[in-house]
């Protein structure tokens, strides 16, 4: 990091000054390089030079080394998640946060081991297979090659997985059993849900950064930079997993469905005024939260966006290197022909004429579609197609609506679901306190 480099240079100058003879007052002839450096003849090195093949530690956490390579590999994941467009001036800022995350992971793994909570390599490997398939849509060998091409490695992902599994298993044994939620509390919430039927629930994502009066300015600056990167196309889920200090980091910061009265006042006020997919920075108890509004719905009320669709997707792609001017005639013909479709039975013939691909999609919820398509699908007559949708990079497609089933009557949370939700909330709060205590007791040496 720039800061560490600067400190290292200052230390080096100080060391040379200390080794110079204090009694010497000779003014060197600056025209002679040897004289300017004041190198005595016949001298010898008093210590071995640094071995470039030895990885130096960035921090040592209770005796466990975190190297600069560890930080580099984790940083590469963040850069990749931002389509390799992370501004160079932000790299060092993110390095500091990544180092903090790696220290926390070390503490979590160490605490789990101290309590004889074991996570085997086989379990980590099995979880990694799911991550490769779901997050990267690749096989394990393909994911390994992809990460290596980005300057990262599967080792850094597996370390993060091991920390999450170890921490969750430790909480399940040492924290969750001591969380008490009474039947009266659950019944009171169910009664409140019944009386608030029709009011709004919000599905939110959160990246929480804790702050103290001493570091608040720096933490808030980091939050603003993360916010800017996400607004410019960065992955909220990826940033949440890497930077959020809440236990929901493991699920990409997803808070699930909540009502405003369940949130701290500052978050509730912000959520009430947000639009879908908007992200804002909000002061929160003990720090700052980056809040993302994923969706909203009415409590215990059917939502048309929960309707399920049966579709046919007709898509064309453009040859590599095509310009918009070259693609325009293709898009015009594609639009004209697909708008003539009347009934799903005709979709395959039209696609064949256009040389387009056809994919059948069933049981797709309206709310799972991109925002611009949701209302179109609710208004579209059965058997007709949407306007063309897409881009030069991803190709252009239309969706032919073959069927639309209205949502079932809304069902409210069951007693067990409410109980589980309250237990999760209290476990998460205890987990933050647990990690805070581990940080306070840790011996961390920085280089």
TrEMBL record:
In terms of InterPro entries, this protein maps to: OMP_Chaperone_SurA, PPIase_dom_sf, PPIase_PpiC, SurA_N, Trigger_fact/SurA_dom_sf
What GO molecular function annotations does the UniProt record carry, in alphabetical order?
A: peptidyl-prolyl cis-trans isomerase activity
Q: Which domain of life is it from?
A: Bacteria
Keyword set, alphabetical order: Chaperone, Isomerase, Periplasm, Rotamase, Signal
PpiC domain location, by residue? 199-297
| Cleavable signal peptide | 1-28
Q: Which SUPFAM superfamilies match?
A: FKBP-like, Triger factor/SurA peptide-binding domain-like
A Pfam family it matches: Rotamase
Q: Which PROSITE patterns match?
A: PPIC_PPIASE_2
Give the protein name, as stated in the record: Parvulin-like PPIase
Q: Which organism is it from?
A: Sphingorhabdus pulchriflava
Lineage per the UniProt record: Bacteria, Pseudomonadati, Pseudomonadota, Alphaproteobacteria, Sphingomonadales
